[in-house]
């Protein structure tokens, strides 16, 4: 029944989780967000260890991706002190080039593709990844009495705190994560805790500038895709039936129900032919066709996994990350130097440039010379006048004494 319900809905909304979206979020987080860290040590290294551990244990991966995560997990467990972003990129590249059977998937958004490049994408894929990890961990180990129901949520909180690029988002999620120990008592509580947290974020970001206008943020699941998830209370309000929501989430995010793009395309062709031929009551009259679709989906998925093991994906170029980081560092260094030089010049020259200062110096020197010349001119002139007067007086005295007329 889940296959029928899911197959019909993809025609109208396309909001069921695709395996490609989870794989794209995984690739982005490992090749971009973790790789751009300069140094990973202490609590940050521990958070990365927990994140890779839950990915290795619970990620619904194909064979090649599963092998890659297992090798990366083993390598990381041997790192006891610290690693750098370059070490991380180098190891990812080494694992992928060592074997075609251990590869990271390509980054392709399908269900999480936004109407414009700036919308949805990685945040959408990361939420899907987290929901899938919580659900699949519970489905896999729920009956194990030693199962740690808080393991996935704590790993998520650590990753968001130290590696997620949106720091305000990380702070908001960290505030909610403080209630994990208090709220999580049973395995199913972890699924419902993340569901409530996601709906809180959707409510806060509704009508925000980051919201995709073609994919508005709603309270999930909507009544359209899960009518039994709602009931009407005594006040006439429709509210969530959490037992039904839990059943829905376990089915929705189960690894067995993830859509594969190649399979979905073939499913759509069969369903279109089927609906065109039997527009009235087609589900009730063609159970055999539905079984064929289910079988086709299983066969296609198996073939996709076989083909995936034969594909050698492009090696991640570690030099790109280093070149980008170096260019960013140089630009910041130049900016700091320019700002320091500008501040120094302003403080030392009162806002005057080098030409202004040169002119001031020249004028100062010329003025000084002129003043000195004037000083010497008047000083010498005065002495000459004094000497002339003195000589004239002496001559007058001599004449007087000579003629005895004084």
Structure report:
There is one protein chain. With 406 residues, the chain is an all-alpha fold. It is 68% helix and 3% strand. It is built from 16 helices and 4 strands. The chain has a two-stranded antiparallel sheet with strand order 1-2. Strand 3 (230-232) and strand 4 form a beta hairpin. Helix 3 (43-58) packs across helix 7 (151-163) and helix 6 (122-141) runs antiparallel to helix 10 (187-205). It is elongated and about 160 Å long. The chain starts with a helix and ends with a helix.
- In what range is the share of β-strand residues? under 5%
End-to-end Cα distance, whole Å, is 151 Å
So what's the overall shape?
Answer: elongated
- Uncertain regions spanning at least 5 consecutive residues: 1-14
Label the structural class: mainly alpha
Please estimate the helix content: 55-70%
If you compute it from the alpha carbons, what radius of gyration comes out, rounded to the nearest whole angstrom? 40 Å
State the helix count. Answer: 16
User: How are the strands ordered across the major sheet?
Assistant: 1-2
Largest sheet: 2 strands, antiparallel
Q: What string, H for helix and E for strand, traces the elements in order?
A: HHEHHEHHHHHHEEHHHHHH
Q: How many β-strand stretches?
A: 4
Mean pLDDT: 82
């Amino acid at each position: 029944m889940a296959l029928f319900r899911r197959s019909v809905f993809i025609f109208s909304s396309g909001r069921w989780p695709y395996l490609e979206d989870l794989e794209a979020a995984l690739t982005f987080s490992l090749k971009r967000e973790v790789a751009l860290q300069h140094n990973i040590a202490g609590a940050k290294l521990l958070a990365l260890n927990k994140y890779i551990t839950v990915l290795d244990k619970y990620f619904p991966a194909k064979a090649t991706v599963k092998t890659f995560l297992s090798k990366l997990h083993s390598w990381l467990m041997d790192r006891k002190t610290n690693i750098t972003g370059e070490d991380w990129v180098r190891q990812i590249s080494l694992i992928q080039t060592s074997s075609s059977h251990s590869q990271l998937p390509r980054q392709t958004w399908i269900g999480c593709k936004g109407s414009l490049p700036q919308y949805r994408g990685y945040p959408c894929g990361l939420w899907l990844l987290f929901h899938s990890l919580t659900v699949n961990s519970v489905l896999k180990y729920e009956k194990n009495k030693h199962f740690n129901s808080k393991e996935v949520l704590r790993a998520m909180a650590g990753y968001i705190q130290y590696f997620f690029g949106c720091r305000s988002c990380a702070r908001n999620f960290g505030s909610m994560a403080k209630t994990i120990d208090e709220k999580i008592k049973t395995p199913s509580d972890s699924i419902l805790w993340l569901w409530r947290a996601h709906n809180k974020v959707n409510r806060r970001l509704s009508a925000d500038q980051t919201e995709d206008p073609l994919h508005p943020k709603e309270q999930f699941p909507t009544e359209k895709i899960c009518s039994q998830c709602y009931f009407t209370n005594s006040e006439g309000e429709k509210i969530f039936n959490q037992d039904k929501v839990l059943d829905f989430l376990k089915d929705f995010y189960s690894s067995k129900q993830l859509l594969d793009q190649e399979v979905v395309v073939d499913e759509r062709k069969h369903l279109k032919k089927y609906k065109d031929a039997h527009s009235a009551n087609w589900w009730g009259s063609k159970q055999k066709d539905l079984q064929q679709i289910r079988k086709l989906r299983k066969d296609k998925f198996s073939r996709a996994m076989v083909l995936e093991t034969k594909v050698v994906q492009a090696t991640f170029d570690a030099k790109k990350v280093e070149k980008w980081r170096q260019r960013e560092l140089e630009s910041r260094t130049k900016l700091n130097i320019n700002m320091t030089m500008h501040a120094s010049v302003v403080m030392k020259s009162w806002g005057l440039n080098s030409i202004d200062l040169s002119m001031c110096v020249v004028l100062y020197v010329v003025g000084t010379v002129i003043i000195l010349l004037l000083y010497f001119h008047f000083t010498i002139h005065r002495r000459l006048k004094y000497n002339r007067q003195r000589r004239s007086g002496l001559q007058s005295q001599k004449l007087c004494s000579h003629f005895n007329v004084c």
